[in-house]
TrEMBL record:
Protein name (record): AMP nucleosidase
Residue ranges crossing the lipid bilayer per the database entry: none
Source taxon at top rank: Bacteria
GO biological process: cytokinin biosynthetic process
A cellular component term, taken from the record's GO annotations: cytosol
Record-listed E.C. numbers: 3.2.2.4
Catalysed reactions, as listed in the record: AMP + H2O = D-ribose 5-phosphate + adenine
Organism, scientific name: Desulfoglaeba alkanexedens ALDC
């Protein structure tokens, strides 16, 4: 392994580090460290993380900043480790009040929801605490549950279903926890809840609206006759839509239901034909479980010309060369379009029509 000369050590000015391979012996040391440790996957990204840590150490006088970066990296590393073993299993993230008590109608709905999701082949992700979270975990069972908890001075502790579970994670920071909730989800469902539930609802909507989270079902569940989400939607319509702060198409991002059966049906419907999407350069590739009839394809091309780049097109085909790193889905048919990168509500409408074709 290359060593720094004595006159390059801390009693001399710091080495000016770059993410490009222009760091001389420092690059050699990092390469040697990874080789000595062994088993490093994707070394180009590990190298940049090491460099980022070194640069942060040079640039930050405040220990609190470094502690935050350190905790964040460690929490996200453990998150990836826990979830990676279940990458091929669809998961539904469920939010709701920690204060809902066992025996309340909405608690029993949440328990049934967890049970039906498990029976349909899904795993569930909850905040791992009491109330709605515990109900969903009870319904799904320990083996089909993740608990994504947060350290708080009150109220939040692991529920009995996920306590001690290898799929239970406790976070220091809410922002890391939010990444886990939404990065790993194939659908999101919300029962009535407090500030935290509403925060997660708006976070998910913001990510869907801006395209920072690829499309997924966002289901708002209330008990029969319940008004929680209808009152919320009324506020969104009266105060946001009527003022021109959002568009009517933004209402495609969520669906309100009053039964567990309907909630599960809506999630299943989203994946009836649609599988996933990926951006390849400027092109958006929609991967489908099955092709659609030719007449339906012609209709889609006409109805959704408005979401294309000027002069862009929409074509049917097979996997692009850049998708070779996903061999397990290389066989799926593709809809490839020159998407304008802004009309994500309309993109959701396109996916819905693909599923219904």
């Amino acid at each position: 392994m290359t060593e720094l000369r004595k006159d390059d050590r801390p009693d001399t000015p710091p080495v000016r580090l770059q993410f490009t391979r222009t760091n001389g012996p420092v690059d050699d040391l990092i390469d040697g460290l990874m080789e000595q440790v062994g088993g490093i996957r994707h070394p180009q990204w590990v190298r940049e993380m090491i460099l980022a840590a070194l640069k942060a150490g040079q640039e930050n006088e405040c220990a609190a900043d470094l502690k935050l970066m350190n905790s964040t990296l460690k929490e996200m590393r453990f998150t990836a480790k826990v979830f990676s073993a279940y990458a091929g299993v669809k998961k539904v993230t469920v939010f709701g009040s920690a204060r809902t008590r066992s025996g309340e109608p909405i608690y029993e709905m949440a328990r049934l929801f967890g049970k039906q999701l498990s029976e349909a082949g899904y795993m569930v992700i909850t905040g791992g605490g009491p109330g709605i979270m515990q109900a969903v975990n009870e319904g799904a069972g320990s083996e089909r549950s993740f608990g994504v908890n947060i350290r708080l001075p009150f109220e939040q502790k692991s529920n009995p279903v996920v306590e001690g579970n290898p799929r239970s994670i406790t976070y220091k920071y809410f922002f890391n926890r939010k990444v886990a909730f939404l990065k790993e989800a194939d659908a999101v469902a919300l029962f009535p809840g407090g500030f935290g539930t509403l925060d997660e609802a708006m976070e998910t909507l913001t990510l869907l609206q801006t395209g920072k989270r690829y499309p997924l079902p966002l289901i708002l569940i209330d008990e029969p006759g319940g008004t929680y989400w209808s009152h919320w939607e009324r506020f969104i319509r009266n105060e946001l839509l009527d003022r021109g702060l959002i568009s009517a198409m933004d209402f495609r991002f969520f669906e309100r239901v009053h039964s567990v059966d309907e909630a599960v049906r809506r999630i299943n419907r989203f994946y009836r034909r649609y599988h996933s999407l990926r951006f390849v350069g400027e092109r958006l590739v929609l991967r489908l479980q099955s092709p659609i009839p030719p007449e339906a394809a012609e209709r889609l091309a006409r109805e959704f010309a408005d979401i294309l780049q000027p002069g862009g097109g929409m074509t049917w085909g097979s996997a692009l060369a850049e998708e070779a790193d996903e061999p397990e889905i290389i066989h799926l048919p593709r809809l490839i379009l020159d998407f304008n990168h802004k009309d994500f509500g309309r993109l959701r409408a396109l996916i819905d029509l693909l599923n219904d074709a």
